[in-house]
Structure formats: C-alpha cells, structure tokens
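Pipeline run #58 for the internal structure catalog. This entry was flagged by the ingest filter as a single-chain record with no existing model, so it goes straight to prediction. Upstream metadata was stripped on purpose; only the residue string is passed forward. Reviewer on rotation: M.T. Logging verbosity set to normal.
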Amino acid sequence: MAGRPRLTMQVMLQTGGMAHAAVRACLHAACFPPPEQWDEAAMASLLASPGATALLACQQDEPVGFILFRCIADEAEVLTLCVLPASRRHGVARRLVGQAQQEAARAGAERLFLEVSTHNQPASRLYEQAGFTRQGLRRRYYADGSDALVLASTLPNTPRA
C-alpha cells in the first residue's frame, strides 16, 4: 500500500538440506491451494536434482518461508518460493530472492528465470523490484487455468565459488 511504511522482519536465512523437506512441504501447504502443493517426497526429489539449493527463512528459529532454485550451466530457475501469510510484506521474500540471485551468480548462472501467475500481483511487483523482466507467457500454466508470466533477471558477473 502506498504511503504506509513496511516493517522489515528480522529473519535468518540458512541452507535447507534434505532434513528440511518436511518443513518445506508444510510451508508450501500453508501457502498454496491443494492442487499446487508439493509434498515432502516432491521437496526431497527436487532438492536431490543436480544444482538444486533451498534457502530457509526463520524468525526466532521458526520457519516462515523458503525458496528452492536450481542452477544448470549458465542459467538458474526458481522452482518455488513461499512465505507464510502472516510473514508477508515484511521483506522475507525479497531477502530470499536476493540471496538466491547472489548464490546463483556465484554458481556461474548469468540469468535467473521463474514463472509467476498473472493473478499474483504482489509477487509480480516483488520480482519487478528485484530486477526481473518479462520474457514470455505460458497460457493456462497453473491448475486454476491462469497464465504464467516467464520472468528473468540478469545476474551480476560473480566469480564461481
């Protein structure tokens, strides 16, 4: 909302390994409608794929969100991002996206891609502020029939880790 100051939530970001698959599944279930929820097995499978990384955001040791992304060669892709409803609009997603951009650049990616529903205006604004631009449109991409915007961010040229 214009004119209202945003409160920034103090969160710690940590790399979330296989042990956090159940936590990520619970967060995902709290953030997405049933047809779009990923279970623990899906979370573990995605994290086991080459180049995948998960970052978990915690406030006072309580998980409030995560981002799961994958780097392959010189490209990276956000597989999913979610923040609990009570923790939204406090900078958590912005921190997760920014850290994913940094880590993808360190891994050698030149661009970071993602899809976002055309109905999800808050996420679209977040991504625009993070430097993402429209690359295309996937018609009827989501289970509810909504289209997905394909967005990309050019990453800084960072030496590989």
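catalog note: Strands lie at 12-15, 52-59, 62-72, 75-83, 111-117, 133-138, 148-154.
catalog note: The longest strand covers residues 62-72.
status: ready for reviewer M.T.
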